[in-house]
Every structure is written in C-alpha cells, then in structure tokens.
Write a structure and sequence with these properties.
- This protein is α+β, with helices and mostly antiparallel strands.
- The protein has a domain at 35-117: 2-Layer Sandwich (Alpha-Beta Plaits), CATH 3.30.70.
- The chain is 44% helix and 19% strand.
- It has five helices and four strands.
- It has a four-stranded antiparallel sheet, with helices on one face.
Length: 131
Amino acid sequence: MKTQRSFTSVLSLLILLAVVRPVHAQPPTPPKTTDVLVLMTVKAGVQREQIAKVLPSEVRATVRLYLDGKLRQWFQRSDGKGVVFIIPATTVAEAQAIMENLPLAQASLVEHDYLALSPLGPLATLLESAK
C-alpha cells in the first residue's frame, strides 16, 4: 500500500510539473526523439491466406532487423489486432523507411501508424530543483 501511495505521489508530481510552469520560464526545448512506436495492422479486406503466404519472409526480415539493431522490441497486441514495434530511430521518416521495406508492407497488406517517443521531459525539472 505504501509503495502504491509513493508511486501515485511521484506520478502526480510529474503530471503537475508537465502542466504547470513558472510564468517567466522560457518555452521548453522540443523533446529529442529516441524511438518510434509503430502499430502495424492488417488492411481491411485482406484475407488470412494472403498474410500466411508472406508471413515466413516477414518473420525472417523482422529477425534480421532485430539482429542488425534496427528493431528494439516487437510485440503481438493482446487484442489480436496487429503487432507493435519499437524502432530506435530519431525521426518518424527513418522508422517509415525501415517498416515500408518489410514484405507485408511491400505486398500492401498492412498499414502502419507511427508515434515518435522521447524521454519523459518533466524529470529534468526534478534534477534542476535538486541543485
């Protein structure tokens, strides 16, 4: 219970720091993108058999990306609606170039949604207040 209360307190502080800034503060520096989250879903109307034909080459290509350091993590969505990738890229365009060359994308069987990720910015405020 105490751990949950501590976690809730820290989370509340982070949210407060993200929302409230001193009036005289300069605008924050845009966060540096460190990774890109990619949601891959099968296009509407694509049959399971179409995916099954391309899947072996997709898996091999994905493993190559992982071994080459171009794919940090990948997961199956628990709801069965696709796959989630975390690509170590500094731009969405860089992640798109990687994902669009995979066999399922080349066969126009899947769609991708991209979300740039960055470190949690409000943590820097905690460091500044410790000076």
